[in-house]
Design brief:
This protein is an all-alpha fold. Helices cover 59% and strands 0% of the residues. The protein starts with 50 loop residues before the first helix and ends with a helix.
């Protein structure tokens, strides 16, 4: 309703107008696919600082920002460091630090990252990579932040507007299982349980088709035919992971 404050960031907002397995978006890419991938022949990006020095200075800036939020000053300081190619690490640092803070600090970081993206200081792919770094370390983060699974999922809410909700389908199954156990009975929990069942079924079928189509009959066409008929493009990262493990 108009005038109603947005939901707290610690409350996962699971909306499933379209099944998560079918949700894909260019706003969940890890790299900018509009340009060719770099090779050894490409000149590395020029930065003013070494990576270790950048991380040290970024941590100082982050602590100052959480002590006394000054979004414009923070943006100016980040720009002055002259290290745009490291900004995925900056996104990870800011989001990770925000997990230890309260609701107002988390919202402040969301606003800061959105402004950086709007001003061209951070690409959407860098923002996604920063978020993915936290997702990959969620079990370690949870030791310090017990509700980390819910907080990470909350960043994907359409009401927050920071990251595209199609990233939800790429979250680790174990993270979602933990979140499901922690949630009270609700429509959101029912949606999450449905997604977990769908993901589990897909992974079981994937394992079967990898073994039968690829490794036994060595038929790429048969495997591709099954994958197309499954119609779940958001799970295709599981194909890469499953094939790598099985090989």
């Amino acid at each position: 309703l108009k005038g109603r404050p947005p939901p707290p960031l610690e409350q996962p907002d699971l909306e499933e107008a379209v099944p998560f397995s079918r949700q894909i978006s260019p706003k969940c890419r890890l790299v900018d696919c509009s340009s060719p991938s770099p090779t050894c022949a490409d000149t590395p990006d020029v930065t003013r600082l070494e990576f270790s020095e950048f991380r040290r200075k970024a941590a100082v800036l982050a602590n100052e920002y959480f002590t006394e939020p000054d979004t414009k000053g923070m943006v100016a300081s980040i720009r002055a460091m002259g290290c745009p190619s490291y900004h995925d690490e900056l996104a990870a640092l800011l989001l990770r630090t925000a997990l230890d803070r309260g609701e107002s600090e988390r919202r402040s970081v969301v606003g800061l990252l959105a402004l950086m993206e709007a001003e061209g200081l951070m690409s959407n792919a860098q923002l996604v990579r920063g978020f993915e770094k936290l997702v990959l370390a969620w079990d370690d983060i949870q030791l310090d932040v017990p509700d980390a699974p819910g907080l990470l999922v909350a960043f994907l809410s359409t009401k927050v507007g920071l990251l595209h909700k199609s990233l939800f389908a790429r979250l680790p199954e174990e993270l979602l299982q933990r979140l499901c156990r922690d949630m009270a009975s609700s429509e959101a929990r029912d949606i999450l349980q449905s997604h977990l069942r769908d993901l589990s079924t897909f992974k079981q079928e994937l394992s079967q088709h990898l073994q039968e189509d690829l490794f036994s009959r060595r038929s790429v066409d048969d495997f591709a035919s099954w994958l197309r008929s499954a119609g779940k493009p958001a799970y295709h990262h599981e194909v890469v992971a499953g094939a790598g493990r099985a090989a």
